[in-house]
Protein backbone atom coordinates (compact mmCIF):
# COMPACT_ATOMS: atom_id res chain seq x y z
CA UNK A 1 0.00 0.00 0.00
CA UNK A 2 1.10 3.55 -0.44
CA UNK A 3 1.87 4.43 3.09
CA UNK A 4 2.29 7.46 5.20
CA UNK A 5 5.32 8.21 7.12
CA UNK A 6 8.11 6.73 9.19
CA UNK A 7 10.56 9.45 10.19
CA UNK A 8 13.72 8.52 12.10
CA UNK A 9 12.13 5.23 13.14
CA UNK A 10 8.93 6.78 14.49
CA UNK A 11 5.64 5.38 13.25
CA UNK A 12 3.03 8.01 12.49
CA UNK A 13 -0.13 6.37 13.74
CA UNK A 14 -2.66 8.62 12.04
CA UNK A 15 -2.66 6.32 9.02
CA UNK A 16 -4.42 3.43 10.68
CA UNK A 17 -7.76 5.14 11.05
CA UNK A 18 -7.99 7.07 7.78
CA UNK A 19 -6.68 4.37 5.43
CA UNK A 20 -7.58 1.15 7.18
CA UNK A 21 -10.62 0.49 5.03
CA UNK A 22 -11.38 1.81 1.58
CA UNK A 23 -14.96 2.89 0.95
CA UNK A 24 -16.90 3.07 -2.30
CA UNK A 25 -17.66 6.05 -4.48
CA UNK A 26 -17.28 7.03 -8.10
CA UNK A 27 -16.99 10.41 -9.71
CA UNK A 28 -16.25 11.63 -13.20
CA UNK A 29 -15.14 9.91 -16.34
CA UNK A 30 -12.11 8.30 -14.72
CA UNK A 31 -14.19 6.21 -12.34
CA UNK A 32 -16.48 5.21 -15.17
CA UNK A 33 -13.51 4.02 -17.23
CA UNK A 34 -12.03 1.89 -14.45
CA UNK A 35 -11.51 -1.78 -15.18
CA UNK A 36 -13.07 -2.59 -11.79
CA UNK A 37 -16.18 -1.03 -10.31
CA UNK A 38 -15.02 -1.84 -6.79
CA UNK A 39 -12.16 0.33 -5.52
CA UNK A 40 -9.14 -1.83 -4.74
CA UNK A 41 -5.66 -0.74 -3.63
CA UNK A 42 -2.27 -2.45 -3.85
CA UNK A 43 -3.28 -5.23 -6.27
CA UNK A 44 -1.51 -8.55 -6.65
CA UNK A 45 -2.56 -11.05 -9.33
CA UNK A 46 -1.90 -14.74 -10.00
CA UNK A 47 -3.41 -17.73 -11.81
CA UNK A 48 -5.38 -19.93 -9.41
CA UNK A 49 -5.54 -23.72 -9.38
CA UNK A 50 -8.71 -23.66 -11.54
CA UNK A 51 -7.08 -21.50 -14.22
CA UNK A 52 -8.92 -18.31 -13.28
CA UNK A 53 -7.05 -15.15 -12.31
CA UNK A 54 -7.33 -13.85 -8.75
CA UNK A 55 -6.44 -10.29 -7.75
CA UNK A 56 -6.03 -9.45 -4.06
CA UNK A 57 -6.04 -6.02 -2.45
CA UNK A 58 -5.89 -3.99 0.75
CA UNK A 59 -8.74 -4.34 3.30
CA UNK A 60 -12.01 -3.00 1.97
CA UNK A 61 -15.00 -1.50 3.78
CA UNK A 62 -18.64 -2.34 3.18
CA UNK A 63 -19.74 -1.68 -0.40
CA UNK A 64 -23.19 -0.63 -1.54
CA UNK A 65 -24.89 -0.20 -4.87
CA UNK A 66 -23.84 -2.26 -7.85
CA UNK A 67 -21.15 -4.15 -5.92
CA UNK A 68 -22.97 -4.61 -2.62
CA UNK A 69 -20.83 -6.58 -0.14
CA UNK A 70 -19.70 -6.65 3.46
CA UNK A 71 -16.26 -5.49 4.63
CA UNK A 72 -13.38 -7.77 3.65
CA UNK A 73 -10.00 -8.29 5.36
CA UNK A 74 -8.34 -9.37 2.10
CA UNK A 75 -10.78 -8.77 -0.75
CA UNK A 76 -10.21 -10.57 -4.02
CA UNK A 77 -11.59 -10.39 -7.55
CA UNK A 78 -11.88 -13.44 -9.84
CA UNK A 79 -11.52 -12.79 -13.56
CA UNK A 80 -10.31 -14.05 -16.92
CA UNK A 81 -8.39 -17.20 -17.85
CA UNK A 82 -5.69 -18.38 -20.21
CA UNK A 83 -3.93 -15.51 -21.99
CA UNK A 84 -6.74 -13.06 -21.23
CA UNK A 85 -6.63 -11.92 -17.60
CA UNK A 86 -9.20 -9.12 -17.96
CA UNK A 87 -10.38 -7.68 -14.62
CA UNK A 88 -13.35 -8.33 -12.36
CA UNK A 89 -15.78 -5.59 -11.47
CA UNK A 90 -16.91 -6.67 -7.99
CA UNK A 91 -15.33 -8.41 -5.00
CA UNK A 92 -15.73 -12.19 -5.11
CA UNK A 93 -14.83 -12.97 -1.49
CA UNK A 94 -12.47 -12.59 1.47
CA UNK A 95 -9.21 -14.56 1.34
CA UNK A 96 -8.49 -13.99 5.05
CA UNK A 97 -11.87 -13.96 6.85
CA UNK A 98 -10.28 -14.92 10.18
CA UNK A 99 -8.04 -11.86 10.30
CA UNK A 100 -4.26 -11.34 10.18
CA UNK A 101 -3.31 -13.60 13.11
CA UNK A 102 -2.64 -13.20 16.82
CA UNK A 103 0.47 -11.06 16.26
CA UNK A 104 -1.43 -8.27 14.49
CA UNK A 105 -4.55 -6.14 14.61
CA UNK A 106 -6.65 -4.05 12.28
CA UNK A 107 -6.62 -3.88 8.51
CA UNK A 108 -4.35 -5.71 6.08
CA UNK A 109 -2.38 -3.84 3.42
CA UNK A 110 -0.84 -4.94 0.16
CA UNK A 111 -1.21 -8.74 0.27
CA UNK A 112 1.02 -10.66 -2.12
CA UNK A 113 0.50 -14.35 -2.94
CA UNK A 114 2.56 -17.03 -4.67
CA UNK A 115 2.08 -20.77 -5.13
CA UNK A 116 5.00 -22.89 -3.92
CA UNK A 117 4.62 -26.66 -3.92
CA UNK A 118 1.06 -27.54 -3.01
CA UNK A 119 0.42 -24.43 -0.93
CA UNK A 120 -0.22 -20.74 -1.47
CA UNK A 121 1.79 -18.32 0.65
CA UNK A 122 0.42 -14.88 1.41
CA UNK A 123 2.66 -12.08 2.69
CA UNK A 124 0.78 -9.06 3.99
CA UNK A 125 1.26 -5.85 5.94
CA UNK A 126 -0.50 -5.35 9.28
CA UNK A 127 -0.13 -3.39 12.52
CA UNK A 128 1.81 -5.15 15.24
CA UNK A 129 -0.19 -5.54 18.44
CA UNK A 130 0.89 -3.19 21.18
CA UNK A 131 3.02 -0.86 19.07
CA UNK A 132 1.15 -0.28 15.82
CA UNK A 133 4.41 -0.79 13.91
CA UNK A 134 3.83 -1.79 10.30
CA UNK A 135 5.26 -5.26 9.76
CA UNK A 136 4.87 -8.19 7.37
CA UNK A 137 3.05 -11.42 8.19
CA UNK A 138 2.90 -14.78 6.46
CA UNK A 139 -0.19 -16.99 6.06
CA UNK A 140 -0.88 -20.18 4.10
CA UNK A 141 -3.72 -21.84 2.20
CA UNK A 142 -4.37 -24.84 -0.02
CA UNK A 143 -6.38 -22.63 -2.38
CA UNK A 144 -5.68 -19.29 -4.04
CA UNK A 145 -8.95 -17.93 -2.67
CA UNK A 146 -8.25 -19.07 0.87
CA UNK A 147 -9.00 -19.13 3.63
CA UNK A 148 -5.44 -18.07 4.46
CA UNK A 149 -4.67 -19.06 8.05
CA UNK A 150 -1.75 -19.58 10.44
CA UNK A 151 -0.85 -15.90 10.16
CA UNK A 152 2.50 -15.28 11.82
CA UNK A 153 4.89 -12.35 12.03
CA UNK A 154 7.46 -12.57 9.24
CA UNK A 155 9.48 -9.33 9.30
CA UNK A 156 9.38 -6.55 11.89
CA UNK A 157 12.53 -4.37 11.90
CA UNK A 158 14.02 -2.87 15.08
CA UNK A 159 13.55 0.73 16.22
CA UNK A 160 10.00 0.93 14.89
CA UNK A 161 10.97 1.00 11.23
CA UNK A 162 8.60 -0.46 8.69
CA UNK A 163 8.59 -3.65 6.62
CA UNK A 164 5.66 -3.54 4.17
CA UNK A 165 4.50 -4.32 0.62
CA UNK A 166 5.75 -7.90 0.35
CA UNK A 167 5.64 -9.46 -3.11
CA UNK A 168 6.52 -13.19 -3.35
CA UNK A 169 7.68 -14.92 -6.53
CA UNK A 170 9.10 -18.29 -7.55
CA UNK A 171 12.25 -18.85 -9.59
CA UNK A 172 14.09 -22.12 -10.16
CA UNK A 173 11.73 -23.90 -7.77
CA UNK A 174 12.62 -21.52 -4.92
CA UNK A 175 10.42 -18.92 -3.26
CA UNK A 176 11.57 -15.31 -2.83
CA UNK A 177 9.98 -12.21 -1.34
CA UNK A 178 10.67 -8.61 -2.37
CA UNK A 179 9.45 -5.92 0.04
CA UNK A 180 9.86 -2.37 1.27
CA UNK A 181 12.51 -2.63 3.96
CA UNK A 182 13.14 0.57 5.89
CA UNK A 183 15.75 -1.23 7.99
CA UNK A 184 18.25 -0.77 5.14
CA UNK A 185 17.83 3.02 5.24
CA UNK A 186 17.91 5.67 7.94
CA UNK A 187 15.94 8.73 8.95
CA UNK A 188 13.33 9.69 6.35
CA UNK A 189 14.77 7.37 3.70
CA UNK A 190 13.27 4.04 2.59
CA UNK A 191 14.55 1.00 0.73
CA UNK A 192 13.67 -2.23 -1.06
CA UNK A 193 15.02 -5.70 -0.31
CA UNK A 194 14.64 -9.27 -1.55
CA UNK A 195 15.22 -12.50 0.38
CA UNK A 196 14.91 -16.24 -0.29
CA UNK A 197 12.50 -18.18 1.90
CA UNK A 198 12.27 -21.83 2.92
CA UNK A 199 9.57 -24.49 2.60
CA UNK A 200 7.60 -23.05 5.54
CA UNK A 201 7.62 -19.57 4.03
CA UNK A 202 10.03 -18.01 6.51
CA UNK A 203 13.12 -16.13 5.38
CA UNK A 204 16.73 -17.24 5.25
CA UNK A 205 17.95 -13.79 6.28
CA UNK A 206 21.53 -14.57 5.24
CA UNK A 207 20.29 -14.28 1.63
CA UNK A 208 18.76 -10.80 1.97
CA UNK A 209 19.93 -8.29 -0.64
CA UNK A 210 19.20 -4.57 -1.00
CA UNK A 211 17.51 -3.81 -4.32
CA UNK A 212 17.25 -0.02 -4.15
CA UNK A 213 17.41 2.93 -1.79
CA UNK A 214 15.38 6.13 -1.98
CA UNK A 215 18.69 7.98 -2.23
CA UNK A 216 19.21 6.26 -5.61
CA UNK A 217 16.47 8.40 -7.19
CA UNK A 218 15.13 11.95 -6.90
CA UNK A 219 11.60 11.94 -8.36
CA UNK A 220 10.17 10.35 -5.21
CA UNK A 221 10.19 13.78 -3.51
CA UNK A 222 9.20 15.99 -6.48
CA UNK A 223 6.41 18.33 -5.40
CA UNK A 224 6.37 17.06 -1.82
CA UNK A 225 7.30 18.79 1.42
CA UNK A 226 8.72 16.87 4.37
CA UNK A 227 7.84 13.28 5.17
CA UNK A 228 9.41 10.09 4.00
CA UNK A 229 11.27 9.69 0.70
CA UNK A 230 8.92 6.98 -0.50
CA UNK A 231 9.90 4.00 -2.62
CA UNK A 232 7.72 0.92 -2.11
CA UNK A 233 5.62 -1.83 -3.73
CA UNK A 234 8.47 -3.79 -5.35
CA UNK A 235 7.68 -6.52 -7.86
CA UNK A 236 10.51 -8.53 -9.42
CA UNK A 237 10.22 -10.08 -12.87
CA UNK A 238 12.45 -11.76 -15.44
CA UNK A 239 12.57 -11.15 -19.16
CA UNK A 240 13.21 -13.65 -21.96
CA UNK A 241 16.93 -12.85 -22.01
CA UNK A 242 17.32 -13.84 -18.35
CA UNK A 243 17.55 -10.30 -16.94
CA UNK A 244 15.80 -9.47 -13.68
CA UNK A 245 14.02 -6.16 -13.12
CA UNK A 246 12.04 -4.62 -10.29
CA UNK A 247 9.07 -2.29 -10.60
CA UNK A 248 8.42 0.03 -7.65
CA UNK A 249 6.30 3.03 -6.66
CA UNK A 250 7.37 6.45 -5.46
CA UNK A 251 6.13 9.86 -4.32
CA UNK A 252 2.81 10.62 -2.54
CA UNK A 253 0.19 7.89 -3.01
CA UNK A 254 -2.76 10.31 -2.90
CA UNK A 255 -1.60 12.61 -5.69
CA UNK A 256 -1.18 12.53 -9.48
CA UNK A 257 2.58 12.29 -8.84
CA UNK A 258 2.49 8.74 -7.48
CA UNK A 259 4.21 6.78 -10.22
CA UNK A 260 6.15 3.66 -11.17
CA UNK A 261 9.87 3.17 -11.67
CA UNK A 262 11.75 0.21 -13.15
CA UNK A 263 15.30 -0.85 -12.26
CA UNK A 264 17.57 -3.48 -13.80
CA UNK A 265 18.90 -6.05 -11.31
CA UNK A 266 21.13 -8.41 -13.31
CA UNK A 267 20.77 -12.14 -13.94
CA UNK A 268 20.10 -13.33 -10.39
CA UNK A 269 16.98 -12.80 -8.26
CA UNK A 270 19.42 -12.11 -5.41
CA UNK A 271 21.50 -9.40 -7.10
CA UNK A 272 25.12 -8.89 -6.12
CA UNK A 273 24.69 -5.10 -6.13
CA UNK A 274 21.85 -2.60 -6.05
CA UNK A 275 19.59 -2.43 -9.09
CA UNK A 276 19.98 0.44 -11.58
CA UNK A 277 16.98 2.62 -12.52
CA UNK A 278 16.36 2.58 -16.27
CA UNK A 279 15.06 5.25 -18.64
CA UNK A 280 16.40 8.37 -16.88
CA UNK A 281 14.99 6.72 -13.76
CA UNK A 282 17.00 8.81 -11.29
CA UNK A 283 15.17 12.02 -12.20
CA UNK A 284 11.85 10.79 -13.64
CA UNK A 285 9.57 7.77 -13.21
CA UNK A 286 9.24 5.23 -15.97
CA UNK A 287 5.41 5.05 -16.01
CA UNK A 288 3.19 7.84 -14.73
CA UNK A 289 0.36 10.28 -15.34
CA UNK A 290 0.82 12.65 -18.26
CA UNK A 291 -1.12 15.77 -17.41
CA UNK A 292 -1.46 18.63 -14.94
CA UNK A 293 0.53 17.99 -11.79
CA UNK A 294 2.58 15.16 -13.26
CA UNK A 295 6.30 14.58 -12.76
CA UNK A 296 7.36 14.05 -16.38
CA UNK A 297 7.27 10.24 -16.66
CA UNK A 298 9.19 8.62 -19.47
CA UNK A 299 6.05 6.81 -20.63
CA UNK A 300 2.33 6.77 -19.95
CA UNK A 301 -0.03 3.87 -19.28
CA UNK A 302 -3.32 2.88 -20.96
CA UNK A 303 -6.12 5.39 -20.14
CA UNK A 304 -3.54 7.78 -18.59
CA UNK A 305 -5.07 7.66 -15.10
CA UNK A 306 -3.69 9.74 -12.25
CA UNK A 307 -1.29 8.28 -9.70
CA UNK A 308 -0.52 4.87 -11.24
CA UNK A 309 1.37 2.77 -8.69
CA UNK A 310 1.45 -0.50 -6.80
CA UNK A 311 2.36 -2.22 -10.08
CA UNK A 312 2.59 -6.02 -9.83
CA UNK A 313 4.05 -8.18 -12.61
CA UNK A 314 2.44 -11.59 -13.07
CA UNK A 315 2.61 -14.32 -15.71
CA UNK A 316 0.05 -15.96 -17.97
CA UNK A 317 0.14 -19.77 -18.41
CA UNK A 318 2.40 -19.30 -21.44
CA UNK A 319 4.88 -17.28 -19.37
CA UNK A 320 4.12 -13.85 -20.82
CA UNK A 321 4.44 -10.91 -18.43
CA UNK A 322 1.33 -8.94 -17.56
CA UNK A 323 0.92 -6.10 -15.07
CA UNK A 324 -1.78 -4.96 -12.70
CA UNK A 325 -1.69 -1.54 -11.01
CA UNK A 326 -3.94 0.84 -9.15
CA UNK A 327 -4.71 4.45 -9.99
CA UNK A 328 -6.07 7.24 -7.85
CA UNK A 329 -9.28 9.25 -8.15
CA UNK A 330 -9.98 10.00 -4.49
CA UNK A 331 -9.98 6.20 -4.18
CA UNK A 332 -7.94 3.56 -5.95
CA UNK A 333 -9.07 1.29 -8.76
CA UNK A 334 -7.24 -1.50 -10.59
CA UNK A 335 -6.35 -2.07 -14.21
CA UNK A 336 -4.34 -4.71 -16.11
CA UNK A 337 -2.17 -4.56 -19.20
CA UNK A 338 0.46 -6.41 -21.26
CA UNK A 339 4.09 -5.68 -20.33
CA UNK A 340 6.25 -5.84 -23.45
CA UNK A 341 9.91 -5.22 -24.20
CA UNK A 342 10.45 -2.14 -26.35
CA UNK A 343 13.99 -1.19 -27.34
CA UNK A 344 16.00 -0.91 -24.15
CA UNK A 345 12.87 -0.66 -21.99
CA UNK A 346 9.20 -1.61 -21.77
CA UNK A 347 5.71 -0.54 -22.77
CA UNK A 348 2.30 -1.50 -21.42
CA UNK A 349 -0.56 -2.12 -23.86
UniProtKB/TrEMBL annotation:
What Pfam families does this protein map onto?
Answer: Glyco_hydro_43
Task: Specify whether tRNA-binding is a keyword of the entry.
Answer: no
Q: Does the keyword Signal apply?
A: yes
Important for catalytic activity, responsible for pKa modulation of the active site Glu and correct orientation of both the proton donor and substrate, annotated site positions: 165
Signal peptide start-end? 1-31
* GO biological process entries: carbohydrate metabolic process
**Family matches, as Gene3D superfamilies:** Glycosyl hydrolase domain, family 43 (2.115.10.20)
Molecular function GO labels: hydrolase activity, hydrolyzing O-glycosyl compounds
Q: Pathway involvement?
A: Glycan metabolism; L-arabinan degradation
InterPro entries, per database record:
GH43_arabinanases, Glyco_hydro_43, Glyco_hydro_beta-prop_sf
Keywords on record: Glycosidase, Hydrolase, Signal
Q: Which domain of life is it from?
A: Bacteria
Q: Entry's PANTHER family? A: ARABINAN ENDO-1,5-ALPHA-L-ARABINOSIDASE, ARABINAN ENDO-1,5-ALPHA-L-ARABINOSIDASE A-RELATED
Which family is this sequence assigned to? Answer: Belongs to the glycosyl hydrolase 43 family.
Q: What is this protein called?
A: Glycosyl hydrolase family 43
Provenance organism: Enemella evansiae
Amino acid sequence: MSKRRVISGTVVAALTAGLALVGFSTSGAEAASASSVTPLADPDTLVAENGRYVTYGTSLGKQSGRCNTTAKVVPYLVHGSGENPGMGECVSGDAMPGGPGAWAQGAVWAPGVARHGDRYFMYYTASRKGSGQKCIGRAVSKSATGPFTDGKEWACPPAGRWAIDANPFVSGGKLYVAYRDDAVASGAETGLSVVRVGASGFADWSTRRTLLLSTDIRWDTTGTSGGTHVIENPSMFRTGNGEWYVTYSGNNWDSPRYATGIARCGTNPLPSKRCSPIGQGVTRPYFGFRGAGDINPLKGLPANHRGPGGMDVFQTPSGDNRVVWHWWNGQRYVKTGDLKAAGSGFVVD
